[in-house]
Design brief:
heterodimer; A: about 600 residues; mainly alpha; Cytochrome C Oxidase, Chain A; two-stranded antiparallel sheet; B: about 200 residues; Four Helix Bundle (Hemerythrin (Met), subunit A); 5 helices; elongated
Chain lengths: ~600, ~200
């Protein structure tokens, strides 16, 4: 074999078909971010339409072409953009992008493993995701446009190809892409769970795991339990669409013509969909909670408050997430008693959530806080988790939900509690572990500016939406200018759209910081944040197998920050004691 | 760096030993959830539909049940044999299991044929939800079973090459867990379709 040929192969297997978790992590991150930016651009475009309905925009004309004659977005294409924005953000950025990136990067490094349980399955997981992303993007360009039934793709809109333009090939490709996505996600989850349970280094007991790992573990478990159900729902939909079954359809007319479908029910789809759909919220949120717990403890130089309570509440959230799906269906004619049951289980989630918030705040309290961009975004998550969580109490209660169902109140709620929290967690993670990902440091100042622009605009966008919702403005409408009732609310939409435009430009700061730092940033030191966890003992440059020589052994939990002896002196002389440091004489193990 | 490569080889085998079965178990959990999605869907559909058609399962499906139980027992006997280093018995047991596995698929086809000749069809205007579900659930079980058949082929080829012995039979174990699972899954689906759907 010639040297040259060997090099080619090296390149292919190192950067493309890599089985190394660190490379796969970067692949997930970059694919996720590309999808995220596409989703962001979509939202900015339809915010233009919502803020200034019917006006012509040069940018819309340029970007959307035949979707927007004379620069005015066509109504059906508005639906396609909303649908694709939701799909891309929820699944491609915040599920695969977030979990894929950080589970892959951190699981082997933080538990002390050479790699994932199966590098091959891990590679497949990424490529299924990548293929799914490509198909989802292709669906934007097919005749009739992309899927337009909303990211929840309720039948009959999604089940009858002739229903609206977006119900055609675009919808089919959506389903194909999601089927591939689910397979990829399952392969990833399998690996995460088994790696965490079976490949921990010596001394790394479950109660010495960083909270990130607990979060990734629970996320993967929810994924394994709920994604197959979405697959089963999607398959029934595929059969209804293409093969003449009637699982979701009954007595349907189109254009006065009776269709053959009989005996099914669209409500069935809602049950199956939300059995995934609600846990999906936590698939998106839990990794962000884990990431920020770790960051807040490290950056406040304090042990995380209530480590076991944090684990317990995540376990409780994960469990409860699978028995609350009915709260998305209060207005489907659900038996009020059943509605009350779902209200009860839903409101129960407030308890573990409140425990987490309390622990976040008590960890921050009197901490020696270093305000890195990662810290800021983590605190941002605590903020959004509270403000979005509180409106969740309203929506989780069937009696209240009915009044604001399918209004902008819902849009405001879930964007804050799930969208912002998760993306803040993701940003925090990228800023914090960038040295581990790329061996270089990001620029702090630009990062801080990025945070302030993002949080101010984010609240500027989503907070006023609650008022729109309370006034009854329905979500997903192309324009509300036909309803005199909403005439005096138009200014709010102008405000929201203005913030949306600013936030979109604000993300360019991040993009610049990310790309520039990855290529030209200052070289990262071994342990830039004086952190205790195991990943910072691995060499800065990525090597196959993660550690030269033996895998380090672990002697303590990862949160021994500012630990003092009876004289008030730091044990070990520094305000942190890495997990690899054996217990000092007379020191007690804090692995609570 | 050279030492890493050597270590790698060791750890790869070690990792596989530690993780092959857990990976399969969690995969099984996801398959269980997939089918429970559909069987719950049957219950929801039935509840909301006054004209639900109760379909009598074809006799061939009962035959399928017997075949798959037999195959599981045989395969298990193969596992016990290889633990005692009886390679001959393993070969015989695995090959017979493979034959029974294929017979199971054949019996499923006979079942579908019987359903079809009784006018119970999967799609189209004369289909009902009940009939569509029967085909869908059984067909997807067979699709999962094909993966089991592939693993049986691999295990039989390897057993003929005498790759397994009393200290090295992870492949047999992994294959057998999946095969038992497929059997259990079929029994559940069979009883579900017979008594609940």
């Amino acid at each position: 074999m010639s040297t040259h040929h060997h090099h080619d192969q090296d390149f292919l297997f190192k950067y493309v078909f890599s089985q190394d978790h660190k490379m796969i992590s970067k692949q997930f991150l970059i694919t996720g971010f590309i999808m995220g930016f596409i989703g962001l651009i979509m939202s900015t475009l339809f915010r233009l339409q919502l803020g200034w309905p019917g006006e012509s925009f040069w940018i819309i004309d340029k970007l959307l072409g035949s979707w927007a004659e004379n620069g005015v977005m066509a109504p059906d294409k508005y639906l396609a953009l909303v649908t694709m924005h939701g799909t891309i953000m929820v699944f491609f950025l915040l599920t695969a992008g977030l979990s894929g990136t950080f589970s892959n990067l951190l699981i082997p490094l933080q538990i002390g493993a050479r790699d994932m349980a199966s590098g091959f399955l891990n590679m497949l997981s990424f490529w299924f995701f990548f293929l799914s992303s490509v198909i989802m993007l292709i669906s934007l360009g097919v005749e009739g446009g992309a899927a337009s039934a909303g990211w929840t793709i309720y039948p009959p809109l999604s089940a009858l190809p002739q229903a609206i333009p977006g119900s055609g090939l675009g919808m089919t490709l959506w389903l194909v892409a999601m089927a591939l996505f689910i397979v990829g996600s399952l392969l990833g989850s399998l690996n995460y769970i088994v790696t965490i349970l079976n490949l921990r280094t010596k001394g790394m007991s479950m109660t010495r795991l960083p909270l990130t790992i607990w979060a990734f573990l629970l996320t993967a478990i929810i994924g394994v339990v709920s994604f197959p159900v979405l697959l089963s729902a999607a398959l029934l939909l595929i059969f209804d669409r293409g093969f003449g079954t009637s699982f979701y359809l009954s007595d349907i007319y189109i254009g006065g013509q009776v269709l053959e479908h009989n005996g099914g029910s669209p409500i069935l789809f809602e049950h199956l969909f939300w059995f995934l759909g609600h846990p999906e919220v936590y698939i998106v949120l839990l990794p962000a909670l884990g990431i920020t717990s770790e960051i807040i403890s490290t950056m406040t130089r304090k042990p995380i408050f209530g480590y076991r309570a944090m684990i317990g509440s995540m376990v409780a959230i994960a469990f409860l997430s699978t028995i609350v799906w009915g709260h998305h269906m209060f207005v489907t004619g659900m038996n009020p008693f059943l509605g009350a049951v779902f209200t009860f289980t839903t409101l129960l989630i407030a308890i573990p959530s409140a425990v987490k918030v309390f622990n976040y705040l008590t960890t921050l309290w009197k901490g020696n806080i270093k305000f890195s961009p990662a810290t800021l975004f983590s605190i941002g998550l605590v903020s959004t988790f509270i403000s979005g969580g509180l409106t969740g109490l309203i929506l989780g209660d069937s009696a209240l939900d009915i009044n604001v169902h399918d209004t902008y109140f819902v849009v405001g709620h879930f964007h804050i509690v799930m969208g912002l929290s998760a993306i803040f967690g993701m940003f925090a993670g990228v800023y914090h572990w960038f040295p581990k990902l790329f061996g270089r440091m990001m620029n702090n100042k630009i990062g801080q500016l990025h945070f302030w622009i993002t949080i101010v605009c984010a609240y500027g966008i989503f907070f006023p939406m609650h008022f729109l919702g309370l006034a009854g403005v329905p979500r997903r409408y192309y324009t509300n200018s036909e309803f005199p009732l909403f005439d005096n609310l138009l200014d709010i939409n102008v405000l929201i759209s203005t913030f949306a435009i600013i936030i979109a430009f604000g993300q360019l700061l991040f993009l610049y910081n990310f790309v520039f730092s990855a290529l030209r940033g200052p070289k990262a030191p071994q342990n830039p944040w004086d952190s205790n966890s195991l990943e910072w003992t691995a060499p800065v440059e990525h090597i196959h197998g993660n550690w030269y020589g033996d895998i380090p052994e672990v002697y303590r939990w990862p949160y021994d920050y500012s630990k003092v002896d009876e004289n008030g002196e730091y044990i070990g002389g520094k305000d942190f004691i890495p997990q690899t440091t054996p217990l000092y004489d007379n020191e007690t193990d804090e692995a609570h | 760096m050279a030492s890493i490569t050597l270590q790698d080889l060791n750890t790869k085998a070690e990792i596989r030993k530690k993780t092959a079965k857990p990976l399969l178990w969690i995969g099984i959990v996801s398959i269980v959830m997939f089918f429970s999605g559909w069987t719950s869907a049957v219950i929801v559909s039935k509840g909301g539909n006054g004209n639900w058609l109760n379909i009598e399962l074809p006799f061939a499906f009962s035959l399928s049940t017997i075949i798959i139980v037999l195959s599981s027992l045989l395969f298990h006997y193969g596992l016990i044999s290889i633990k005692k280093d009886n390679k001959k018995m393993l070969k015989l047991a695995v090959s017979l299991t493979l034959v029974l596995g294929l017979l199971f698929v054949v019996s499923q086809f006979y079942g579908w044929k019987e359903l079809y000749s009784n006018g119970i069809v999967a799609t189209g205007s004369s289909s009902t939800n009940a009939s569509s579900f029967i085909y869908l659930i059984t067909v997807f079980h067979v699709l999962h079973l094909l993966a089991g058949i592939i693993s049986l082929i691999v295990v039989s080829v390897k057993s003929y090459k005498e790759k397994y012995n009393s200290t090295n039979f992870l492949g047999v174990e992994v294959s057998i867990i999946y095969w038992h699972f497929l059997g259990a899954l079929w029994i559940y689906l069979f009883l579900f379709l017979k008594y609940i759907a």
